[in-house]
Amino acid sequence: MEKIIEETVTYLKDKGFENPEIGIILGTGLGQLIEEINIFNEASYNHIPNFPTATVEFHKGKLIYGELEGKTIVVMQGRFHLYEGYTLQDVTFPVRIMEKLGIQTLLVSNAAGAINLDFKKGELMLIEDHINLQGSSPLAFKGVEFLGERFTDMSAPYDAEINKQFKAIAKRKNIRLHEGVYASVVGPQLETRAEYRMLKIMGADAVGMSTVPEIIVANHLKLKAAAVSVLTDECDPDNLEPVDIQDIIANAGKAEPNMITLFKELIRTL
Ligand code: HPA
């Protein structure tokens, strides 16, 4: 793994990806953040050595290097999901690369269903803690101890200082920002009514199909990490409507301006 990482990092450094301070994974609901970045360089995932790029969807995935709010950043436009057939090591490989490039902070966005029915679609949720329901760990491989502590501490996986900042910004900007527990499932099917009931009993406030692997690896590498979900549907098991993926994307779009404001203001404070 170390040699593979080295090869990828060398390629990106040669392309000018020098010393970014912050890494950002753009999920659903934050794509437009790209418009705000002063882009210096970019690399298509399928040109980056060792990047996992098997699916058609990823013809457009790219890593972007640039400046935002006075900070040097590296951005993943498009992320990898377990449900596309990648392994958890594949999904988190870019996090290891961004860390080696120099980031100290990882910021993540995603789309999620609201398990907590006080939360409404189109609103945002700051992730305070998570439940890994993806069936395995991105740290379960031979040699993991050469890249960081095998038995990674997860007592505070989301940076308390950053979360405090996020909350202060939301208050200042009049953005409704909930705080809660995010459960990650494999997908790609949505949940049954029984599964939504189970998630609620477990203590989840939102459910999605990403983010947790990347956050685990960020903690493995001792990066400061934070994540925000855009709530795209309300998962009420007693009144469950069939999910329409177009509807999910539309709801994510509605929340996008707020998400962009939060991220830009946060980055300025870092
Ligand atoms: N379940 C899982 N993932 C999701 C959902 C959901 O209801 N909404 C958006 N991503």
CATH fold-level assignment: Rossmann fold
Quote the average pLDDT.
94
Name the ligand types.
hypoxanthine
Number of domains: 1
> For the largest beta sheet, what order do the strands appear in spatially?
5-8-7-6-9
Q: Helix count, per DSSP?
A: 6
**Number of beta-strand segments:** 9
User: Radius of gyration, rounded?
Assistant: 18 Å
Major beta sheet, specifics?
A: 5 strands, mixed, barrel
> What are the low-pLDDT stretches, counting only 5+ consecutive residues below 50?
none
Query: Could you tell me how far the N terminus lies from the C terminus, measured between alpha carbons in angstroms?
Result: 31 Å
Structural classification: alpha/beta
Name of the CATH homologous superfamily: Nucleoside phosphorylase domain
Q: Quick one: CATH class?
A: Alpha Beta
State which percent range the strand residues make up: 15-25%
* Annotated CATH architecture: 3-Layer(aba) Sandwich
> Could you estimate the helical fraction of the residues in percent?
25-40%
| Inertia-based shape | globular
H/E series: HEEEEHEEHEHEHEH
Domain Nucleoside phosphorylase: 21-268
Keywords: Glycosyltransferase, Transferase
EC number: 2.4.2.1
GO molecular function: purine-nucleoside phosphorylase activity
How would you characterize the overall build of this protein?
The purine nucleoside phosphorylases catalyze the phosphorolytic breakdown of the N-glycosidic bond in the beta-(deoxy)ribonucleoside molecules, with the formation of the corresponding free purine bases and pentose-1-phosphate. The protein has 270 residues and is an alpha/beta fold. Helix content is 31%, strand content 25%. It has 6 helices and 9 strands. The chain has helices spanning 2-14, 88-101, 160-172, 193-202, 212-220, 245-269; strands at residues 22-26, 38-44, 62-68, 71-77, 105-114, 124-132, 177-184, 206-208, 224-234. It has a 5-stranded mixed barrel with strand order 5-8-7-6-9. The longest helix is centred in the last third of the chain and has 25 residues, at 245-269. The mean pLDDT is 94. The protein binds hypoxanthine. Hypoxanthine binds at residues 111-113, 190-191, 207-209, 232-233, 235, 248.
